[in-house]
Amino acid sequence: MAASVRARRLFAPGDHLLVAVSGGPDSVSLLAVLASLAPSWRLRLSALHVNYGLRGEESEEDERFVSRLCADLGVPLVCERVDLRHADGLPKGLSLQARAREARYAALRRAAVALGAGKIALGHTADDQAETLLMWMLRGSGAAGLAGIRPLREGLYVRPLLGVSRAGVLAYLKAKGLAFRTDSSNAKPLYLRNRVRHELLPLLKQFNPALVDALTRQAAILRDEDLCLEQWALEWINRHVQRGGGRTMTVPRTELLGLPIALQRRVVREVARQVTGSDHGPTFGAAEAVLEKVVQGRSGSSLALRGAKVSREYDAIIYSSRGVQAPAGRAVESDQDCTIEISHIPSTAVWPVTGQRIRLRVMAAGTAGVPHGRHTAQFDAERFTHRLVLRSWKPGDVFHPEGMGGRRKKVQDYFCNIKLPRSRRTAVPLLVAPEGILWIAGYRTDHRFRVTPSTRHIVVAEVVPADMMTGGEG
């Protein structure tokens, strides 16, 4: 085992390990081996036993047995009792076995923090690995599931016996004269793992007596390939995906479709996992639905995942955490109108949807230093009434875009032409006079109010980003 620990870097000399001990053969052998290594490796060991009380006196005898074992080996023991029927903080809808597992891992994490242990050692063996792979195969899992149990997970959980068969464990216990407990529930065919262990594995061993070794080798191969795909997906996400406010992420559709389908699925699942903050991404079926209905669907299509919404807006695939609002100063999706009256010029108005300021002033035509650029517009001051409003776009709005020879166009069609996503349209302020729309701020001015050689005075409108606000005219 020591060679495997070194090769996989599961723990190092001087580490403090918390060992999960149920009293079964696997955990007893793990504790005994670690206790024998402790002097030469300068290991500090602690043990935790969880008593669920589900088997009455049998559960109580398990606890007493573990207490005696730890006392004989000189390992400090913490015993924790958990009532699964009334335990707080466990996910709803779990089976009794799943609830026990969640409670056990929660107890291990608490004990590790309280004791100052840097690693938690678990007694899973090669047979556990084989059973796990068969269970995932029955469910139709991909490479992540078929990678099986990892020797090292989250840098915290270590499984030093994962390369040792259950037969090897029993032989070690017999040679050392160590007793162990047998959990009567492990023989009940009620649980899938028990049926795989007692029915399926023996049947398959008739075709390959070395099946456990074969499945363990397969898990190692798939684990390496899974890690490779995961790394490629993360690197692609870091290069191509934009992170926005309010836990949103935008994936470029064309670049995503250029990936092999295996990496497309990885990206779809990993982005959803990051947006929701979940430990697990969506299922294979959910990822396929995103690819089929959103990525390859029409612009405007969307799909709800658990904790996230995925939508396509032209060539952007937008993930947003459901129920999380964008922070101040960022555009937000809204169906509500926003209107701000501007009664005089010079003036500065704050556009509350994005936090931007629209600054207006009058200047003589030909004045030096008149600002230019996308965020600035100029109008002939005598072509419109100076009772202006800033407002959101409304269905039916029309204007005469500069550069189109005075032809009229619906604002909605203009937004479609420039491929402005629907979710951002109500965030764009329109500067409007009684005579018509002067400016789709930051985008296009109206031909009717353009500056000409005969213009004597101009109105200059300027968009000031939220992070550059320094006050202005009142």
Describe the protein's architecture and organization:
37% of the residues lie in helices and 21% in strands. It has 474 residues and is of the alpha+beta class. It has 3 domains: 2-222, 3-Layer(aba) Sandwich (Rossmann fold); 241-321, Uridine Diphospho-n-acetylenolpyruvylglucosamine Reductase, domain 3 (2-Layer Sandwich); 339-468, 3-Layer(bba) Sandwich (Phenylalanyl-tRNA Synthetase, Chain B, domain 3), CATH 3.50.40. It has a 6-stranded mixed sheet with strand order 3-2-1-4-6-5, with helices on both faces. The protein has a 5-stranded antiparallel sheet with strand order 7-8-11-10-9. A 5-stranded antiparallel sheet has the order 12-16-19-20-21, with no helix packed on it. A hairpin with a 2-residue loop joins strand 10 (308-313) and strand 11. The longest helix has 30 residues, at 211-240. The termini are far apart. Residues 323-336 and 467-474 have low confidence and may be disordered.
The number of helical runs is: 14
What fraction of the residues are assigned to beta strands by DSSP?
15-25%
As residue ranges, the low-confidence spans are 323-336, 467-474
CATH homologous superfamily placement of the largest domain: HUPs
Distance between the termini: 76 Å
In the CATH scheme, the class of the largest domain would be: Alpha Beta
Largest sheet: 6 strands, mixed
How are the strands ordered across the major sheet? Answer: 3-2-1-4-6-5
User: What is the fold-level CATH name, i.e. the topology of the largest domain?
Assistant: Rossmann fold
Number of strands: 22
> Could you say what the CATH architecture of the largest domain is?
3-Layer(aba) Sandwich
- Mean pLDDT score: 86
The rounded Rg comes to 33 Å
> What count of structural domains?
3
Oligomer: single chain
Label the overall shape.
elongated
Give the structural class. Answer: alpha+beta
Percent helix range:
25-40%
